[in-house]
């Protein structure tokens, strides 16, 4: 009953639209500032390796595989991350604001938020995770008053053609 309400009610769609535009703006402007301002993730990544999230009782790392990922992949490829992180933030914001591929944008935002949380950054990330889950749970209704209203039927139609062609072959 709750799922049907959240996923189909037009008034819920209105509330979701306001929330997604606000959260989208936050993503967009943070990404844009990094894109135009010479963002460098090296210090952040180094700090995440040097000060990993530790269990207070044992002093052991809570996310040792993530710390190893940062140390052995992200840091050596910091130039790639200097581009991918701001671009990802910008695209998540754009998708949420325009209501285009909103569930995909929300999933991208969730992925980035969890990566920031694994590195020990709290900030607004828990709020963004909460709203990201709400957007994904609401599905189509999140982008009902946005590009998804027009875009998703076209994608479905194209997908059906592709599946039909493969079935005929």
UniProtKB/TrEMBL annotation:
GO terms for cellular component: membrane. It is a multi-pass membrane protein. Pfam families: DoxX (PF07681). The chain crosses the membrane at residues 83-107, 114-140. Keywords: Membrane, Transmembrane, Transmembrane helix. It comes from the Bacteria. It is found in: Membrane. The keyword Nucleotide-binding does not apply. This is DoxX family protein. It comes from Candidatus Cohnella colombiensis.
């Amino acid at each position: 009953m709750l799922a049907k309400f959240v996923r189909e009610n037009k008034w819920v769609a209105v509330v979701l639209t306001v929330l997604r535009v606000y959260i989208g703006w936050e993503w967009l402007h943070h990404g844009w500032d990094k894109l135009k301002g010479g963002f460098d993730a090296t210090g952040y990544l180094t700090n995440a390796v040097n000060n990993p999230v530790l269990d207070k009782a044992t002093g052991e790392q809570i996310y040792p595989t993530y710390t190893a990922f940062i140390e052995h992949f992200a840091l050596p490829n910091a130039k790639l991350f200097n581009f991918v992180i701001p671009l990802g933030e910008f695209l998540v914001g754009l998708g949420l604001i325009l209501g285009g591929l909103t569930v995909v944008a929300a999933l991208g935002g969730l992925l980035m938020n969890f990566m920031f949380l694994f590195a020990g950054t709290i900030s607004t990330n828990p709020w963004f995770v909460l709203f990201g889950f709400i957007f994904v749970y609401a599905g189509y209704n999140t982008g009902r008053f946005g590009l998804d209203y027009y875009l998703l039927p076209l994608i479905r139609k194209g997908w059906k053609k592709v599946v039909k062609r493969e079935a005929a072959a």
